[in-house]
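Worked example

This section walks through a single chain of length 201. The input is the sequence exactly as stored; nothing has been trimmed or padded.
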Amino acid sequence: MGRLAALLLLAGCATTKPTTPGAVSVPIPPPQLETTPLALLQAYKVTPGIGQQCVPYARSRSGIKIFGDAYTWWNNAQGQYARGNLPIPGSVLVLSKTKRLRRGHVGVVTGIVSPREIRLDHANWQPDAIITNMAVIDVSPANDWTQLRFWNKDARMWGAVYPASGFVYNVADLPAPTGKATTTVSSSSSPTHGTPQQPLP
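Given that input, the structure is written out below as tokens.
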């Protein structure tokens, strides 16, 4: 009876119906969750940043001269800076305004691990702190970086899903990069955290 209950419980979590009698299918985590070693996910650094806010930090790190609340960067970039859905080192990730992120959030992409995983440097994700080399994954169905999760090393798990507008690039407002990111990061200790494999527009 115990084995039957366990099988029924697993079947309740199944993503697809069993194809053969007695077979049970279970959810398979996205590849990036399986292949990224825990040590690399845990490697991000948190340093004091008393009073440091995400907008001036992103502006100083990226050279993108946009002002205003973080969520406004996406619209404010129009006509000034190129925008798109492809993460490239040096670009600024813009998170949308939500109940939790009342002013949105911005951070600077420092490396590409896979088409669905990047590294991000940002300020005030935790109060009065600067975080470098934080893992961020794209969980959007279309792999267009509109739904993201951030690694929480205290909890040792991926956090809640946050909506994102996209990436702002430090180049003139011309057609933005498209396609899949191909740059890889071989080590969290790499000084450049990877470089883009395609030229910016």
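What to look for: The beta strands are 45-48, 81-84, 92-95, 105-114, 117-123, 129-138, 147-152, 157-158, 162-172.
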